[in-house]
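User: Can you model how D-ribose sits in this protein?
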Amino acid sequence: MKIVIGNDHSAVELREVISAHLREKGIEVEEVGTFSTESSNYPEWGEKVARKVVAKEADLGIAICGTGVGISIAANKVKGIRACVCSEPYSARMSRQHNNANVLCFGARVVGSELAKMIVDEWLAAEFLGGRHQTRVDMIMKIEEEG
Ligand code: RB5
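Assistant: Here's the modeled complex, given as structure tokens:
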């Protein structure tokens, strides 16, 4: 399992915590930045994570900004991405089981590091259930195809 992780300036510290947590679990991690707390633009980092996922250079992506919102919107503009903002573990689990989310987002100004680790763990432990959920995900992807 390989995870690509990206963040804006607001989430440098939380990204370090999450990367270390993933590595402790034996998961390969690629960090795409930013590594600076200087103000930067979240779409750049969301796009980088998303493009690595669609190129299959990573199995899944994690993208963190202040709220998780901006970076998720940016990631979702890349074809094939289903990014979701999850501020608690239940939604994180469901986003894999029902929505087959391939990028997890959250906000460094919203969740603390321990909660963020729980969100990540729940997300990674869950698997897509397929069936009726596949039908719905296919409908989402059709909307994307039609533009
Ligand atoms: C940066 O100040 C902030 O706008 C960004 O981290 C994020 O919360 C955007 O959605």
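A couple of observations from the model: Residues 8, 10, 42, 65-67, 69-70 surround D-ribose (CB under 6 Å). The radius of gyration is 14 Å.
User: Helpful, thanks.
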